[in-house]
Amino acid sequence: MDPVVTRFPPSPTGYLHVGGARTALFNWLYARHSGGRFVLRIEDTDTARSTQAAVDAIFEALEWLGIDWDDGPYYQSRRLDIYQSYIDRLLAAGQAYYCTCTPEELAEKRQKALAAGLDVRYDGTCRERGLPRTPDAVVRFKTPPDGTTTIHDVVKGDITFENREIGDFVIQRSDGVPTYNFAVVIDDITMGINTIIRGDDHVSNTPKQILIYQALGEELPVYGHVPMVLGQDRTKLSKRHGAMSVTAYRDMGYLPEALINYLVRLGWSCGDQEFFTREELIEKFSLENLGKSAGVFDPEKLLALNFDHIKAADPARLAGLLRPFLEQEGYDVDAGPDLEKIIATLNQRSKTLKDMARDAAFYYQGEIEFDPAAAKKFLRPAVLEALRLLRDELQRLGEFSEKGLEGVFVAVMEKTGFKLGKIAQPVRVALTGKTASPGIFEIMDVLGPQRVLPRLERAIAFIEQRAAAADK
RNA sequence: GGUCCCAUCGUCUAGUGGCCUAGGACGUCGGCCUCUCACGCCGAAAACACGGGUUCGAGUCCCGUUGGGACCA
Predict the structure, then answer these.
(1) Nucleotide nearest to A419 (CA to C1')
(2) Looking at strand B, which nucleotides approach a protein CB closer than 7 A?
(3) Cα–Cα distance between A445 and A465 in angstroms, integer?
(4) What Å value separates CA A238 and C1' B9?
(5) CA–C1' span, A244 to B69, in Å?
(6) Residue A389: CA count within 13 A, CB half-sphere
(7) I want to staple A159 with a disulfide (CB 3.0 to 4.6 A). Which of A105, A151, A236, A357 is the partner?
(8) CB A146 within 8 A of CB A114
(9) Domain co-membership, A444 together with A380
(10) Does residue A180 sit in the same domain as residue A264?
(11) ipTM of the assembly?
(12) Is the pLDDT of residue A65 over 90?
């Protein structure tokens, strides 16, 4: 059995979107799973729409996802002479021919055929004319007039097309640039690609490609046409479906392994398993379990999966990933508490890194801004004594530890007769400004005495002021 | 319009003729836990598009209808 060789051939006409990323993933995973090779090829023959910026964006996205390639990147624009040699070969063998029908003539024929309710394929005017090469001539492939061409597809089964439905299609334009269907086949042949997993929007191109393989006497690759990823309105993914670029998810604070997990599970399954690490995916991915119906992209489920991956991620790695988000919020990370300790209090509650950075706000703020409603409800004279007591006990405690802190709270509870809830909420507001936060002992431990004490002091002063104002 | 593909809870899916009283996950709703909010845990509602066959037996096979999608024009 030859080693598996797969490929991913994006057109650099824009960012890499999630649908394309999924296709890349399937090919990459399959190559890695079977110990084969994965080839990257940039299909940039459409010079009008291809840009270097898009090429860079694609690299950036692939790198973030951790999709690496063994061969390439190849650029179609630099392979024109290779395509030409194959065109010449087909021409010489009489399997292709020059055609000088003008676009106007073709359009006219199409109109007539349409009006007469006939097929609108090329009528073969130049097929047997033996025309020489001229500047305005295109090259057409001589499709067998009869018979059928069938795709043996590993996901959809056999799909058969009538050859007469295909017609003599153009393989090289008059400017010498090969058409998509031709360039793809020549590339796949010369790059040794033997397994092609791609979107099923390519199904109708496939018989043409198979015909070219056959004309060249080349062995066919294994085809697997995977269903499209649809937007919430059940149509093909596009700009109007919102943020669909891979890097947009990175910027929103998603983990690459979460996006990968989500994308692969959309159209592939392994029993009831939902959560996969990248290693598990490589180990378990198989062509057999690819689904054959289109799937709707569900941001909610991706978010839930991201949450699960954040929970499972190593805090030390999270620290590196979170840092830019914190800096974006304007925080001086190195001046704050220990980052890994901060993450340990948040990684079971934040669904994205962006959320986490936002939830970490109180760790970095010098002077806590009390949420008015929270202050009104919890920073009231009734708890003044308890807070003072707490402050004194904490000062006596010196170094913080979760256990020591708990002891201090117990002591205060005993002296005041308050329950923990009665004391914890005011303290929470004092330390974070809000009524919701991680556990009170956890955050105090992370914050440390040098941050906790001044904040408590400030809350006490706040209440004293409030009491004084009320007395007047 | 032509060609092709697809069809299980709202969504992603398990299911490969009897194990299906159709399972899991997200979401939704209810409860528990609790220093708050989350997490977590427990529970609920929720699907085999429809109609014909084949078979002792069909979500599973065949045909048709309907619906959706893709490509070409």
Answers:
(1) B35
(2) 1-8, 10-16, 23-27, 35-39, 68-73
(3) 28
(4) 27
(5) 19
(6) 17
(7) A151
(8) no
(9) yes
(10) no
(11) 0.92
(12) yes
Q: Is residue A356 part of a domain?
A: yes
Query: Do A106 and A100 meet the contact criterion of CB atoms below 8 Å apart?
Result: no
In whole numbers, what is the pLDDT of chain A averaged over residues?
89
Domains held by chain A: number: 4
Contact predicate A207/A166, CB 8 Å: yes
Per-residue confidence (pLDDT) for residue A216, from 0 to 100: 94
Question: Of all protein residues, which has its CA closest to the C1' atom of B69?
Answer: A235
Other Cβ atoms closer than 10 A to A275: 14
Determine the angle formed by the axes of helices A80-92 and A180-190, rounding to 10 degrees.
100
* Domain of residue A148, residue span: 79-226
pTM: 0.91
**Whether A108 and A206 share a structural domain:** yes
* A308 assigned to some structural domain: no
At A108 the pLDDT is 78
In this structure, are A217 and A117 located in the same domain?
A: yes
